Amino acid sequence: MTWEPSPVAVERERYRSRRRRRSFLLALGSTLVLVVAAVLVVITSPGWERTRSSFFDLDVATEVLPGLVQGLWLNLRVWVLAVVISLTLGLGLAILRTTAYPVLFPLRALVAAYVDIFRGLPLLLVLLLVGFGLPSLRLSWLPIDAVYLGTGAIVLTYTAYSAEIFRAGIGAVHPAQVTAARALGLTRAQTTRRVVVPQAIRNTTPALLNTVVSLQKDSGLISILGAVDAIRAAQIEVTGAYNFTPYVVAGVLFLLISIPLTRAVDAYSERRGWGATRPAAGVAR
Amino acid sequence: MTAQVSDVVENPDASAVLSVRGLRLQYGDRVVLDRLNLEVREHECVVLLGASGSGKSTLLRAIDLLEDVQDGVIALRGLDVTDPRVDADAVRARLGLVFQAFNLFGHLSVLDNLTLAPRLVHRLPRAAAEQAALQMLERVGLAGRERAYPEQLSGGQQQRAAIARALVTSPDLLLLDEVTSALDPALVGEVLELLADVRAAGTTMLVATHELGFARRVADRVCFLHEGRVWEQGPPEIIDAPTTPELAAFLGR
What we know:
Strand content of chain A: under 5%
Largest interface: A-B, 17 and 24 residues
Number of domains of chain B: 1
CATH topology of chain A: MetI-like fold
CATH architecture of chain B: 3-Layer(aba) Sandwich
Radius of gyration of chain A: 26 Å
Largest sheet of chain B: 6 strands, mixed
Shape of chain A: flat
CATH class of chain A: Mainly Alpha
Number of domains of chain A: 1
Strand order of the largest sheet of chain B: 6-7-8-3-9-10
Shape of chain B: globular
Order of helices and strands of chain B: EEEHEEHEHHHEHEHEEH
Structural class of chain A: mainly alpha
Structural class of chain B: alpha/beta
CATH topology of chain B: Rossmann fold
Number of strands of chain B: 10
Number of strands of chain A: 0
CATH architecture of chain A: Orthogonal Bundle
Strand content of chain B: 15-25%
Helix content of chain B: 25-40%
Radius of gyration of chain B: 18 Å
Oligomer: heterodimer
Number of helices of chain A: 10
């Protein structure tokens, strides 16, 4: 079917393209002004030369890179392990909190207290308490390795986070879906497993993916306990040389993982129709 | 609210598929069903008429044990299912309920919607459940759509799939709760057509609806609900010759 735009439509389109060009030029102009200003401030600062040599020294960067990459490999292993355990436990706890079995009442109360506590405590504090507190109990069966204790502390905090996310997701499942399942004769447990949980997981996927991304960053906190991850490796280099380039390199390494990950998550969300790239409150115009 | 001496609840009719005696249900102070009596016999199609809020949906949900009742008896083939010691899941498995808003499972394909209960509740092997589901889909005119997800279907198709889901387990009694009220007029016809076929196949049905034409054509008996009771009942002809002023008013006469 062919369609000749009417003069009205042509005129409207001309107006719109003028507006688009104007918007683009405005965006370009404001970006340039900001970048130039930032560069000028940094370059003309009295300490720029020293800062450059102590933070952006290419020789130091190449020298420390292999050690930092090795450290990052530890971060990645901690990350994957913590993600798998936290999400699994979090889902389990969320389901437990929604069950109605009277026998499980004390357990439900315990879970509620656990979630309240570990969602409210700073992760750094949990790391310190677990990392230095547990070994002081001198339990022979307890691993005292900083990596295990650190991962355990991250799991404690992130299990609480993901339990709350899953709980919200379970709450968002439409009651009519539950009614429909029970009307078919499904038991409570069957309804939970076959209808509520699958829909809750779909509801919460964007929030869970964000949690996974932030866990990747927080895996660097285990360095506080002395585990030689990317950050700790950088710290060791810095201590000897009084040159801070290793920190910058470690930062770049983390970004190399987290930026593509974030973009992948966004692209996935966009494809599933959860994208939030439209301007807030935007409609056709 | 003043306390009320409950009438003596008569014994249910054990020869009927469904026998409701002296049913009372209230939400807070609002009495929705009040000493309601109702029978549905084998292969019978009973249509429930009544204004919005007259308790039609509540009655259907109570029969499917989705609501607690304050008094009275609901008996299925003589078994008092209002007894709290009766396994409600087993009772619901013997009944089919179709909702106004379809309530298909959004995360499952049409086929999986139909095989969920046969496999989990009735313990059919997957192959047998799928074969039965495919036959049922063909019967409701959805052959070839078994891989589709509910959101990919029109409203009429979704409701036909929901009816198929309720029928695939061969329930003793099919409960239909205003199943055409969420459909636009062009889609109402296809669903009512299907229900007439289901009726012709001998399915025992209790149908809450506002479709008077359907009631005239398909019902064996029409029950008019008013103030929580069966106010007037009889053959479909009562729609054209109501004896109570309340039914006449409801019909706009």
